[in-house]
Design a protein that fits this description.
By secondary structure, this protein is mostly helical. The chain contains four helices and no strands. 73% of the residues lie in helices and 0% in strands. The chain is elongated, with a radius of gyration of 21 Å.
Length: 132
């Protein structure tokens, strides 16, 4: 994963830390900051897919960026009305956790090409063809 893809992950992780610390407004603003970071990372994946050397998994990563964006937007929208209160809706917390799961899946998909290169593939030995 590139720096562009790690920034949204870091922001969403900070949201969970801010929630645990009781800083509800900070977690809301971190979610708002994660929105353009996810969009930029998603556009970078789309750019890579549009260029000639697109990887096989770029489409899946692009779809997962959209899912992560929707989850972050849903969490922010659920938190907005309750910012003045000291509570966070359970659905908003669940959306953040689901977003972290999506980021983990993105990391696994991004690591697949590297794993494929390191796993040795044993080819069967060619058998001797009978000569007529």
């Amino acid at each position: 994963m590139t720096r562009r893809e790690l920034l949204p992950v870091a922001l969403v992780l900070l949201v969970t830390a801010a929630d645990a610390a009781g800083a509800r407004s900070l977690s809301f603003y971190l979610l708002l900051a994660a929105v353009p970071a996810i969009v930029v990372a998603g556009l970078a994946v789309v750019e890579e897919a549009c260029q000639g050397g697109a990887r096989d998994h770029c489409r899946a990563l692009g779809v997962l960026h959209v899912v992560a964006l929707l989850l972050v937007l849903a969490s922010a929208a659920l938190r907005a009305p309750t910012r003045a209160e000291a509570t966070v809706p359970q659905a908003a917390v669940s959306a953040v956790i689901a977003c972290l799961v999506v980021f983990a899946i993105q990391g696994l998909i991004a690591a697949l090409p590297a794993l494929r290169r390191t796993v040795p593939v044993e080819l069967p030995e060619p058998s001797e063809a009978p000569t007529p």
